[in-house]
Amino acid sequence: MNIRTPYLLFIGDASDPLSIKMAKSAADWSPEKCVGELAMPGCSVSTGLPRLSIEDAVERGAKSLVLGFANSGGTIDEKWLPTILHALNLGMDIVSGLHDKLEEFSPLKEAASRLQRQLINIRHPKEKFRTANGVKRTGKRLLTVGTDCSVGKMYTSLSLTKALRDNGVDATFRATGQCGILVSGSGIAIDCVVADFISGAAESLSPNAPASHWDIIEGQGSLSHPAFAGVSLGLLHGSQPDALVVCHALNRTHMRGLPHQAFPTLQDTIAMNEMQARLTNPSAKVIGVSLNSSSVSEEEALSVCAAISRETGLPCIDPMRHELTPILEALV
Amino acid sequence: MNIRTPYLLFIGDASDPLSIKMAKSAADWSPEKCVGELAMPGCSVSTGLPRLSIEDAVERGAKSLVLGFANSGGTIDEKWLPTILHALNLGMDIVSGLHDKLEEFSPLKEAASRLQRQLINIRHPKEKFRTANGVKRTGKRLLTVGTDCSVGKMYTSLSLTKALRDNGVDATFRATGQCGILVSGSGIAIDCVVADFISGAAESLSPNAPASHWDIIEGQGSLSHPAFAGVSLGLLHGSQPDALVVCHALNRTHMRGLPHQAFPTLQDTIAMNEMQARLTNPSAKVIGVSLNSSSVSEEEALSVCAAISRETGLPCIDPMRHELTPILEALV
């Protein structure tokens, strides 16, 4: 993939902060690659970057318009086509992390071809995968898993990778979703792989490595989510993690997108992930809890982390607020 | 799909009886649609149908050459291209249940186009699926699950559907793999669906139905198979089964294709499937065990079934040898 930078982050008319996670990830983890955000009337959320018009962005050097919003089906709404076409006309490539392919829309295909622009679908793997073989690989692996979707698995993985490197440990972040791929420049969007090859793709994502090397693998979905548990399980088996970190967001009342679906407990999430992980790595163990505490005060966050730590017997921190030391210590 | 019958079943140079399950399924469940089998030097297995040349088959009216073998990656070996081209030249369509698409091979694409023949990839869904919503549907559902791949889930499902209908129960077989689709003429090859949509596709496969109607859904893979558990879990969640039948093959020493991977116990398989199924249907229950006892004598089969029944507290039968009555009774 040759994604031209800097980006203009298109967030549409989003009103749910979780729905712009693609844009927010780039703004948070690669701000130096972003000139600003493009929002439409009705938009009530923000990446925190300056709000620009396409013209402003071009003037500031923007080379790619990143479709920075997401929805459950990963579709591109036709109402955004004029905006996307305008960006193409003004010289930008288009980067999408949605299921729908950009070239499926003939006006985009035609304009990109005529103007010699790139339409980049980072979610669509180009490789052919093989089915998994379950054979244990060398090197060490940590996988983030979750009580739900969008609870902070990618942020936790990126934070852990950075903290390990800062401590002199050889570690590699392995992206499994469009946001992680946008931030890190490589990876496999595991939810876009054909079902038969989920575990095989996960095996290829973290190949044999030196004994002391850590792959920090971004988890996807949740074993307790009725729509995505299959993806989570295939990724878990193929990753063969030695260590698991359970990610959880405070104050969720139901599973993401499913008002009728109750939330699992942390204890159940820990037990189920350990049990399933041991199919391909008998020594797999949950070594910590990563809490997304953004819905409460600093003080309350500390007290909730302490309570979770007592309840689970595991270190619990919010990687966006606290030092990661307790989890790093549990790792080594 | 408009698959022209009768079929000539191509089994290549297979030596593993399980690898020709596509051909064997058609021979066993739709013999009236098959003229015979086509085998190459080295082939040491058979569907039981007469062995014919392509010329013989054409003379007997064959309209489609069915690629009746399978392998773990679902690939088409280039060494079969001359045979497939010969069948096209003599007037046949080609039907494949492999991952590789027939038209990816340019000589096939060119010949089919020139000769106006169909290249049918029954494993490749043409629909766009949505992600699952986990909302409970009306009607009743039974899903076959397994200790492993290729243990008899499709045969059990077809047998159960037939037995229910013979007993005046309104029942529909729902195919989830290429063999079931070939036999029944419709269905979704669930292992070919993009990972994000496994459960959503499974939800669409068995839609709302009258309260007394049973969908008998063909299971895939096994929660204990490192390569395919994600597919099995997504199918389990989307199917929302009221009843589960665990399928098991006697005398397997390891998981299919993975010599290093130990076999799960029946008790563990029952417990794990019930636990996972209850995420989307809290009353899901394993109601019986279906044993593939083809590796032992009639007498031994009866005694093993009795032992399993004592051990699990569930009816246990081999649907290819015994009456299905004990399982039907457990259903109603």
TrEMBL record, chains A, B:
Domain D-glutamate N-acetyltransferase-like N-terminal: 47-125
Source taxon at top rank: Bacteria
Gene3D superfamilies named in the record: NAD(P)-binding Rossmann-like Domain (3.40.50.720), P-loop containing nucleotide triphosphate hydrolases (3.40.50.300)
Record InterPro entries: DgcN-like, DgcN-like_C, DgcN-like_N, P-loop_NTPase
The D-glutamate N-acetyltransferase-like C-terminal domain, residue ranges: 132-327
Pfam families tied to this protein: DUF1611, DUF1611_N
PANTHER family according to UniProt: DUF1611 DOMAIN-CONTAINING PROTEIN, GLL3100 PROTEIN
NCBIfam families (UniProt xref): DgcN (NF041892)
UniProt protein name: DUF1611 domain-containing protein
Source organism: Alteromonas sediminis
